[in-house]
Write a structure and sequence with these properties.
By secondary structure, this protein is α+β, with helices and mostly antiparallel strands. It folds into two domains: about 90 residues, Glutaredoxin (3-Layer(aba) Sandwich); about 110 residues, Glutathione S-transferase Yfyf (Class Pi), Chain A, domain 2 (Up-down Bundle). Helix content is about 55%, strand content about 10%. It is built from eight helices and five strands; from the N terminus they run βαβαββααααααβ. Strands 4-3-1-2-5 form a five-stranded mixed sheet, with helices on one face. Helix 1 packs antiparallel against helix 8, helix 4 runs parallel beside helix 6 and helix 5 crosses helix 7. It is globular, with a radius of gyration of 17 Å. The N and C termini lie close together (about 10 Å). Bound molecules: glutathione. Glutathione binds next to helix 1 and helix 3.
Amino acid sequence: MKLYSGPLSLFTAKVRIALREKGLDCDLWSVPFCRETGYDPKPADVVRLHPQALVPILVDGDLVVYDSTRIFEYLEERNPTPPLYPNGLEERVRCRELEAYGDEIFFPNVWTLVEQVFYQTEAAAEDAAAVETAQRAIHADYERFDARLEGREWFCAGFSVADISIFMGINFASNLGCPPPEGRLALAAWLGRMNARPSVAVEVERMQADVARVFAGERLEEGPRTL
Ligand SMILES: N[C@@H](CCC(=O)N[C@@H](CS)C(=O)NCC(=O)O)C(=O)O
């Protein structure tokens, strides 16, 4: 398998974690990234393989799978063990909803911070009102996540794609100055469990190193990387 992978792409990070959790070998092709131009210019393969020219894209023989959620589902059917979805219809629906919540409801507020804090090279250019609105929404979600995790080890029955999606959003928000506040004990304990997983610890460490390089003005070049 080959994964077209964005070094600082939250959606690709989800897939990298899933591949490690399932112990799958995969060649990574890292797309270029820098703070001034983001993902542009895009590699020809990414433009050819994805209708919106986005990463992640997984290529398995002749099969091309794009979108992190579709890739999760594909990997689960291809290699069911260890599972990244719980058993049972209701639990699986809840798990898919929580994964979607992480990607589509929680992350858009984090994205505001990415746009305002990460891409803006001058602090003065930040839209303070937009940042404040996003931070308020993120904190409301921290409260929801803490309540969901009360008395639970993971968001669903067993470690799952929901944990991966929500964790990556929280990790981005924390790096952009909006970590969960002290006192959210269930959320803090879950974060401890997440950070202790080797698949996640490697991701966090590499992303932090890449963020530091990008903030130092470096361009992350296109090329192969190890999972
Ligand atoms: N829903 C898609 C979102 C993919 C996505 O937004 N990828 C971003 C990187 S995190 C991207 O390729 N951005 C390049 C661009 O916007 O031009 C998924 O889950 O894979």
